[in-house]
Amino acid sequence: MTLISKSTNPTKNDKVHRVLLGKKQILVTEEEPLLIQLERAGIHVEYQCREGYCSSCSIKLLWGHVSYPFEPLAWVQSGYLLACCAIVKSDIEIAFFD
Amino acid sequence: MSYSTFNRKHFDSMKEPMFFGENVNVARYDQQKHPIFEKLIEKQLSFFWRPEEVDLSTDRKDFQRLEEHEQHIFLSNLKYQTLLDSVQGRSPNVALLPIVSLPELETWIETWSFSETIHSRSYTHIIRNIVNDPTKIFDDIVTNEEITKRADSVSIYYDRLIEMVNLYNTMGMGTFNVPGKGDIEISMPKLKKALYLTIASVNVLEAIRFYVSFACSFAFAERTLMEGNAKIIKLIARDEALHLTGTQHMLNLMASGKDDPEMAEIAAECQDEVRQIFIEAAEQEKEWATYLFKDGSMIGLNAQILGQYVEYITNVRMQAVGLETCFATKHNPIPWINAWLVSDNVQVAPQEAEISSYLVGQTDNNLDDSDFDDFDL
Ligand code: FES
Ligand SMILES: [Fe+2]
Ligand SMILES: [Fe+2]
């Protein structure tokens, strides 16, 4: 299954980024954290606190940049991101468990 | 080296390791070697709650209407949680305070332990409310074989560390014969290894062992049963999420060598043993699920689904401390649990706590289209 939103044209808005997840591609903005946008695209992501302190939403960041509006309390492993509070800053590729 | 409640040496606490450096003297928080522990303290304080604030009057009636095997599930989980929090309410203090070397970490340990005593008090609140004789329930915790088996595995690492630190504080380094236990070697690497394994086993206790019970409590609440209990469990789960982040930080800081280079070597050396601690705990929790459902499952949950959930959550927790995941279950078999675990609606009164997620295998005659809004394959 591939999800490509045709309604938004990335070239018109430089704040829209592509998130690659396996064969899926999801378009996200910098307005909200990644988690909520993935959920809206119908992708289940593990979560608990949704506030950056439990690390349940940790997913692999294969390449690309994310930033955190506040420093999360949970430890962020290198090569991972915390979906509940990460703001996507470039096109990125993510992965769940191997 | 004997412990002092106020170390008279003059030293720079910013240069001390988390553990096994100088005993802390001045409790100061204006400077912190690891500011994360100060942040955890602040967060934990902001979470403060009291069990008595949660009204359990409806739970009493609900409990009487539960089928016998459901009462068994409910009470067994309560007993197991009581055991876990009895251990957690004292052990971080007893085991870790004598060896901690940073004021912010010392205070985090005390704050953490204190919040566990609130959990313990909440179990008394719940038990008193649903049965006439709480003694029967509490007594069973020390006699029921299924529970005592677990008591052994949750306390063994703590107990060993405490014993070794006692020897270290009274006798110093060397090999000592302890009656009934044989020779025990005390050296810095041995002490650090005992500490590292203890922190790993505490991480497992808080990040995995509680979750079978959490799932059962929320499965009852999905049927609008025992909702007061579910509200308390939500508050406990919120605290536990913070506690597990505390031990994840300790483990990751140790493994990184940034805090204490020798600890990094020990962490690397212990990798397999730590993996084993996670795997063993997961297997024990799966066994526990089988025990819970021995006389019958509950709507929406059975031993198999719970077993898969244990595997899944174990993978999540292993990944968080940099270990390779080891179970085949890559998806959460009970995704509805997250809506209960999330803390943002913790303040909602129980009767309003309607969660629109679905329950695996639930038979519900009152479905309408909106019930499928959150359906997720
Ligand atoms: S959901 Fe807790 S850190 Fe993201
Ligand atoms: Fe607890
Ligand atoms: Fe805890």
From TrEMBL, chain B:
Cofactors that this protein relies on: Fe cation
Q: What class of enzyme is it?
A: oxidoreductase
CDD domains reported for this sequence: RNRR2 (cd01049)
Keyword list (alphabetical) reads: Deoxyribonucleotide synthesis, Iron, Metal-binding, Oxidoreductase
Q: What is this protein called?
A: ribonucleoside-diphosphate reductase
This protein's species is Marinomonas arctica
Q: What gene name does this entry carry?
A: nrdB
Among SUPFAM superfamilies, the record links this protein to:
Ferritin-like
Biological process (GO), any one: deoxyribonucleotide biosynthetic process
The record's family statement is:
Belongs to the ribonucleoside diphosphate reductase small chain family.
Matching Gene3D superfamilies: Ribonucleotide Reductase, subunit A
Lineage at the top is:
Bacteria, Pseudomonadati, Pseudomonadota, Gammaproteobacteria, Oceanospirillales
